[in-house]
Structures are given as C-alpha cells and as structure tokens.
Amino acid sequence: MLASAAVLLALGYWTYSHVEGSLHEIRRLTMRALLETHATALRATLEDRLDGVPAGERTARSRDLAARYAATSGRWGESGQVMVFHERRQAPDGGDLAMVMEPHAGDSGEAVIGAWRWLPEHGLGVAIEIAADEAYAPLRYLNIAFAVVFGALVFAVPAALGSAVSVLRLKREMGESRRLGPYRLEERIGEGGMAVVYRARHALLKRPCAIKLLKPARATDETIARFEREVQLASQLAHPNTVEIFDYGHTGDGHFYYAMEYLDGITAAELVARGGAVPVPRAVHLLRQLCAGLAEAHARGLVHRDVKPENIMICRRGGEYDVLKILDFGLVKNIAEQHSRDLTRALRILGTPLYMAPERLRDPADVDARADIYAVGAVAFFLLTGHRMFEAADDLALTTKVLNDEPPRVAAAAAQQVPLELDLLVQACLEKKREHRPQRVTDLVEAFEALAQEQRWTQREAESWWAAVPPPRPAR
Prior knowledge:
This protein is an alpha+beta fold. It has helices at about 1-50, 55-70, 130-135, 135-175, 220-235, 270-275, 280-300, 345-350, 360, 370-385, 395-405, 410-415, 420-430, 440-455, 460-470, and strands at about 80-85, 95-105, 110-120, 125-130, 180, 185-190, 195-200, 210-215, 245-250, 255-260, 265, 300-305, 310-315, 320-325, 335, 475.
C-alpha cells in the first residue's frame, strides 16, 4: 500500500507540473495571438484613416482613432479589455512587444495579466489585459485537486479494489449474460476517453442499435447527472439527419448508458481519405443535409459545438444512399443556460481548433449557433478541396492561424471547378467575426437547395458509388 501511495504521489506531481506548464503556455500563446490581432487591426485602421491627414494633425488624429478603436473593441471573457497608451514602454528584451504573465496591479487595483505592443510608426501602443483570477481559473481547480491527492492516498488502495470489483461485476454483467437492460450486446465497436460503444440489439424488438456506456472511472454522481441531462436534451431531436437516441438507463451497478440508432456507413473524414475531394454536386447534397439537421437543433436552442468530419456519417438508410447523419448530439450545449456547467467543456477546449470558430478559441463559453455555421464552412472547405483549411505543426500554432489568418478561397484551393455562389457561401461562413457570417443555418439550407438545382446528385450516382467501394466498417 505504501508503494502504491508513493507511485500515486509521484505520478500526481508529474501530472501537476506538466499540466500547469501547459496551461501557462496555452494562456501565453492565446494572449499573444489576440494581441497581434488587435495590433494588426489598429494599424490597418490608422493607415486607412490617416491617409491625407496633414503631418501636424496626425498625432492627435491617430490618438483619437486609437481611443475609438479601444472603446469599440468590446470586452472578452468577463474582464478582458483592449487599451491604448502613448508613452513608450521598455520591453525586457528592448523590443516593441512584452508579455506580462505575472499578476500585477491594474488601473482598477485588481491583479491582472496582459501583453502590449508598441507601434513606432504611429507613436502609440496597444495593450490587452484580463483579471488574473479569470485567466488562471483552471489552475485553482488544479491546485485544489493536487491538494486533495494527499488525503486521497489514504483511500487509494480500497478505492482501487472497489473499482476492480465494479469492473469485474460489469464485465460479468456484459460478458456472461451479454445483456444491458433490454439490450443484448453483440460486439464492441469503439472506445473513447469517456465511453465504450457496443453494437447491440433490443431483446424484444430485435432492432439493431449502438450502446454507449460511460466508463466506470468517469461515473461519478455529478458526471452521470450531467451526462443524463445532456442526453435528455439531445433525445428531443427527431430530424432524419440527426442520429436518433432511443433510450437511456443504468446498469445494475449504476453505470450510465444510452442507446442510439446503429449506422452502416463511413465518416466524412473517411470519405475524403478514400477518394480525395468530393465532387461539387455530392458535396452540396451532403452539406444541405448537414445544415438541415443543425437547423432543428438550433430551433430548440441547442448548439452542437463539435461539427467536424469525424462527427458526420454518410450511410445507406432505408433503401436510400448518401444519407447524412450528425453524430455526438449527446454532448450538446443549451445556449439558453449561459452559465450552466456541461460535461464536455474541458474536452471541447482541448480539442482540435481547426473547426472551432475564433470566438470560441478566445472564450470557450462564448458560443451560439453561428459557431456551428463557421464549422459548416470549414467542413465544406475540407470536402471540396480534400485537405484541411490550415496546416500547422501543433494545435497551438493552428489556433494562432485560425485567429489571425484569412482562410484561402475554396475555389482557389480546390482542384475541381467550384461555382462562384458556393465559393462565396463558404467564404461567408468562415468570416472571423460572427456578425458577418450567415446568421441562421436555415439560410444555408436554402442556399444549398438552390445550388442543388444546378449541381444535381442523383440516387443512381450515389448507388453506383456505394456499389464500387468496399463495404464500410460498422459504425455507431
């Protein structure tokens, strides 16, 4: 037991130090990317507005324009703000940029962190700052968690034994009887960080389905309650392009599971991996279905938040080919409850930023239906070109590109000819500012329906494609 406690302590300390370092680095890179965004925008504003202004009036005019820019940039998060200053500051390396990540007293007396850049050509600087408590809020939970590790060591061995017994009991329940409530399990088909997925069949109805079982290690009372609530929200959805949730319940040991329709198909990511860029008519056909499924969710006040090729299934359903299904609607966000906690918030923050709207990268809690519209644009780019919108060495570098770089036009990036109307529609979805994007996904449905009149994809073409490819793997 002492050896186990020592191992747990060493592992906990190693995890703490690495996670703490990663959180600091993520915050620093995010602050740097946000600062550069504002510096670039302010430069562009000044250069545009000062053109033709007499030299004697340029200083006063530039300060006035900069003050207006700061006043209209708005706040980010709860306390983040943009400011301008007129006296040159000395950066530690003598340059024009400094990151002040150690908490210090701001103008209001509150401890803040920030960053600034001096614009020598204009004789002023731009700065951003945010309350240290808000910026490093995740560290508070990390410190609390590490503190309780010492107390948890006393219970580590009994807890491990209890968990082992629970797992064995669960395996017996699913292995010997192969039953989970009214469902007979047939095959394990997938596993993620939160859950295991089985192909199953209802014992009485004989209907095939997929069972998603929350892992015992994740099954705390709070996690189960939130997971259950989010599944209840998603079960309200009935659109044919949304994966249907049939049922949910608990095992004899109290482990949470839910049953959903079983799909025979491939993901959009696998579709592109098999054949490269998707022809325009087929892409329009699929994107219309994607938007139609999202439209029902948005009408109910739900935002998916994780629209990406891996969560889009193309399958054969009810004698039809190329039926699109949106997956993982069991982990949606109810935008009517702005301050509610949700089970997968941390997972969404740490996920790939390629399909995340810029406002979500700045503030993960700041999400509405237009974040899904941005993701639709990114998925459309991927389908039509056969490659990702941005390439980067890691997720942090990718975040900077999403925040600052303009995405390439799909017509220029695609090897196939893309109609101007479709090119402009994708570009509009990918606007950095959400107020410049289409405001409703129903507008996209109408746009793709209009495009489909010219870019027709028939059931005969879809059937021919499915007949020519190897049978798809079983899907959830």
